[in-house]
Design goal:
Layout (H helix, E strand, L loop, with lengths): L4 E8 L2 E8 L8 H5 L5 E8 L2 E8 L1 H4 L2 H4 L1 H4 L6 H5 L5 E7 L1
C-alpha cells in the first residue's frame, strides 16, 4: 500500500499552519466538507494504488491563507470541525505559533 499524505498550508515567521490529509484513509464521504464553515475543502480525484480515488483537499483559493481561513476553528487549541467530522481520521493539523 502506498501512503499519500498531503500538507496544505505554509510555514512563515509566525509559525507553521497546515491541514494534513491522509489520502489512503479518506473515503471521499464529504462529511468534512459539509462541516467546514469556511468552505475551504473540496473533493478531488487522485491516482492512488493504481486506481482513481475521490479524496478531500484544501481548495486552491485557501491553500496560501490556511492560517486565516482555519483560524476560527483552530483558535485556542480547539479541534477543527472537519477533523471531528472525519470518521476515518484522515484529517489532522499542524498549528504552531512562534
Amino acid at each position: 500500500m502506498i501512503f499519500i499524505i498531503t500538507y496544505y498550508g505554509y510555514t512563515d515567521g509566525s509559525g507553521e499552519f497546515y491541514i494534513v490529509i491522509d489520502s489512503t484513509k479518506c473515503t471521499g464521504c464529504e462529511k468534512c466538507i459539509e462541516k467546514c464553515p469556511q468552505s475551504a475543502l473540496e473533493i478531488i480525484t487522485e491516482f492512488i494504488d493504481l486506481e482513481d480515488k475521490n479524496v478531500v483537499a484544501v481548495n486552491e483559493k485557501n491553500r496560501k491563507k490556511i492560517k486565516y481561513t482555519c483560524s476560527e476553528c483552530l483558535y485556542d487549541g480547539k479541534t477543527a470541525l472537519c477533523i471531528k467530522a472525519c470518521e476515518q481520521n484522515a484529517i489532522s493539523t499542524i498549528w504552531k505559533t512562534t
